Request: fold
Amino acid sequence: MGAWRVTADLLANSRFVVSPLAETVAAMTVLDAPSGPSQAAFRGANRAAYDEMLAAHPTQIGPRMVLASTILAQGRVREAAAQMRQAAAMLPDDVELLVRVAQGLSRLGETKAARGCMAHPIVATTRSGPALTALAHVCQGLGLNAEALQLMDRARVTGYDNPDFRYFRALQLQFNGLMEEAEEEMERCLRMGPTFGRASLSLARIRRQTPESNHVGFIRSRLASHPRRSGAARTARRTASSHRSRPPP
Reply:
């Protein structure tokens, strides 16, 4: 353990620093649900102007999403969902914003509205690998496994690639019944990231492991060149050892 030396001036100044973001969120909370006479007066003086701003700038989804998050923090799930549905109804051609809205709707259980986001024209034209991958995760959560795999295949065409992407694409291949391709993809994941423990475990479970036919040798070969102190490496090694020692059923 160590000790921090903080000057008196720094300590004093830190007590009175105003965060514009914190002040904005607090104001939006008061505009939605005031508590006490002073907040009610603030709401009465400013709520009409706030509603006019939202109506005048329908594509400014950010304020509505912030409002939804403040309402949700108060435990008012239905009202937060209503704000998110309004945001989804006026989405601009901004794929990153669409991803955020679709993710929020999915987390709130608004599956119909989240599926509606997938029909936005920008989804069919975007070439953003990260956005396509994020939308694929949303589709997976909605049970749209075929659509999720299509989105991940499009992301791969853009050149987007990393061990995590390979791992989740392998899972989508499994969900779509393409077990041989899933096995190959999981092996590619491990070639890129030898200590990707989840991939080692998933690879060992793709098909029945026997003493004559298993993935232990491949997993051990990928780990051989990696430092043993890695936590992920230890997880993968335990996986390999357990499957090597496990008797066939």
